[in-house]
């Protein structure tokens, strides 16, 4: 029996998912919640095999996904959301989600995704998988959308306008190759705070990992050249 927690802040959607899952042999809903914080609490209490997670709730489904995957690694997160933009997909996968489905998926697709994720696999909806393949196949994009490094070494504030001043400081140190502990000591922050900044930076830059962030930062003139 695969045990699930369903997290969605729309009662009708949540009830529909519970009914759908309950009609499939081998699947069981042990709790349903309407927020990310409640999803984390339910995961800690019930230790389910899978949390079916919406992203857009009163609080962040991304943050809940990150906390669940970091503190309860035996519980997998399967995202079921309306959003299939690159930012949402990358943020969810970077947070540790093992699957990503778009609402409107059929019962069969949801069942297959649950079973795949529960067994340790990864399953993405076709549209999401195509986006990831396209992104991985394309040359790394720079902040202005080009694939050619800028010649003027422009400032980080101009290159990455979505970042806060503190996040730009952290990115500058990341570009130097500093790890989180070194960044924390340099900026007089806790390692946990630095880790949060790094996660936000990766999300805002839509960087797949730290290495991609370093490459893009150095191309923008950050770090010791």
TrEMBL record:
Domain HTH luxR-type span(s) in chain numbering: 156-221
GO BP annotations, alphabetical order: phosphorelay signal transduction system; regulation of DNA-templated transcription
Response regulatory domain span: 3-118
Gene3D superfamilies recorded: 3.40.50.2300
Molecular function GO labels: DNA binding
Record keywords, A-Z: DNA-binding, Phosphoprotein
Pfam families: GerE, Response_reg
SMART domains documented for this protein: HTH_LUXR, REC
CDD domains (alphabetical): LuxR_C_like (cd06170), REC_NarL-like (cd17535)
Residues the record lists as 4-aspartylphosphate modifications: 54
PANTHER family: TWO-COMPONENT RESPONSE REGULATOR
The protein's name in its UniProt record: Response regulator transcription factor
């Amino acid at each position: 029996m695969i045990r699930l927690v369903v997290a969605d802040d729309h009662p009708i959607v949540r009830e529909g998912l519970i009914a759908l899952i309950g009609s499939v042999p081998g699947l069981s809903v042990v709790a349903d919640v309407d927020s990310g914080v409640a999803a984390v609490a339910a995961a800690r209490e019930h230790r389910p095999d899978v949390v079916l997670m919406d992203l857009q709730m009163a609080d962040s489904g991304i943050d809940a996904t990150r906390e669940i995957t970091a503190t309860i690694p035996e519980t997998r997160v399967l995202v079921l959301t309306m959003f299939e933009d690159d930012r949402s997909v990358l943020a969810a996968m970077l947070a540790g989600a093992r699957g990503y489905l778009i609402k409107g998926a059929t019962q069969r697709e949801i069942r297959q995704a649950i079973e795949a994720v529960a067994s340790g696999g990864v399953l993405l909806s076709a549209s999401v998988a195509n986006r990831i393949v396209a992104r991985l196949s394309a040359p790394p994009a720079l902040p202005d959308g080009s694939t050619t490094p800028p010649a003027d070494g422009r400032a980080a504030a101009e290159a990455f306008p979505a970042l806060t001043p503190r996040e730009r400081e952290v990115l500058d140190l990341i570009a130097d190759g500093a790890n989180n502990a070194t960044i924390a000591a340099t900026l007089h922050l806790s390692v946990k705070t630095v880790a949060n900044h790094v996660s936000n930076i990766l999300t805002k830059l839509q960087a797949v990992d730290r290495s991609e962030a370093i490459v893009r930062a150095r191309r923008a003139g950050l770090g010791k050249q």
